[in-house]
Design brief:
Strand content: 5-15%
Shape: elongated
Radius of gyration: 28 Å
Structural class: alpha+beta
Distance between the termini: 78 Å
CATH architecture of the largest domain: Alpha Horseshoe
CATH class of the largest domain: Mainly Alpha
Number of helices: 9
Largest sheet: 5 strands, antiparallel
Order of helices and strands: EEEEEHHHHHHHHH
Number of domains: 3
Helix content: 55-70%
Oligomer: single chain
């Protein structure tokens, strides 16, 4: 974008605009400096004469700079570029199907790009707020990435409800992936027992699901308590368990 595009409307105010075409539609993007008394740059996007989007940024912090004029021009250019980029991104994502989002999410997770996957899902939820799989993946990553454990688990659990409403018969076929994500959310919250139960429920439906099998293996098999008639959390079971572990360790060393 050239500085020659800027149209000086007064000594204090500047403005420039451009037209772009996206998907056969023409948009006018207009950026205007509101002046030093109201130090803001506002960029409006017009479609068929109506404002469809606007972006506003302040510049009070550069009013006293010696190179103010060049800085304000640079700021307007960047604001204009940002508006164009945002519009293009919005148009592109509108054409992405739900399956595309899920496929890309799974690819990002396989490459361990969890933060990027969550950003993608946040955008996906805007377009597909009632999709149970997008809901499930987002809940899982909310717990893992943002450490919002309760929100993540509840979002994953809600995905089951959404699925049942949309597929009242035979919805169990889709449950394994929901149980997988719910289990991972529980793991992030350090709830191993609940995570294990979730993974097991998924395997009851799909006993060859590799991801569920791997998660079960990672958790390992817990030793049976020495006093099975008492809860695992019972202080007596914990004490005897520690003594047993210590005794076995000493025996191994000897």
């Amino acid at each position: 974008m050239n500085k020659e595009q800027i149209k000086i409307t007064s000594k204090l105010r500047k403005e420039f605009s451009e037209k772009i075409s996206l998907a056969g539609e023409t948009y006018l993007i207009d950026s205007e400096d509101l002046g030093t008394k109201n130090p803001f740059i506002i960029t409006r996007i017009y479609h068929k004469g109506a404002v469809v989007s606007s972006h506003k940024i302040g510049y009070r912090d550069i009013l006293d700079k010696p190179d103010f004029n060049s800085k304000i021009i640079d700021l307007m250019q960047r604001q204009q570029k940002y508006a164009v980029k945002a519009l293009k991104f919005e148009k592109i994502t509108q054409n992405i199907t739900c399956k595309d989002y899920i496929k890309e999410t799974e690819a990002l997770l396989r490459s361990n790009n969890q933060k990027e996957a969550l950003q993608l899902l946040t955008n996906a939820m805007y377009h597909y707020p009632n999709n149970p799989f997008i809901c499930s993946y987002q809940g899982c990553l909310e717990a893992i990435v943002n450490k919002k454990y309760s929100k993540g688990v509840n979002t994953c659990r809600n995905a089951f409800k959404v699925l049942k409403e949309q597929v009242p018969f035979g919805e169990e076929f889709f449950f394994p992936i929901l149980y997988l994500n719910l289990g991972k959310a529980y793991l992030a919250a350090s709830k191993r027992k609940e995570a294990y139960a979730s993974f097991k429920k998924g395997l009851e439906i799909d006993d060859v699901n590799r991801e569920l099998i791997n998660e079960i293996k990672k958790l390992g098999t817990r030793r049976q308590t020495l006093l099975p008639f008492l809860k695992r959390s019972n202080p007596l079971n914990k004490y005897i368990g520690k003594l047993s572990f210590k005794f076995k360790r000493q025996t191994t060393i000897i």
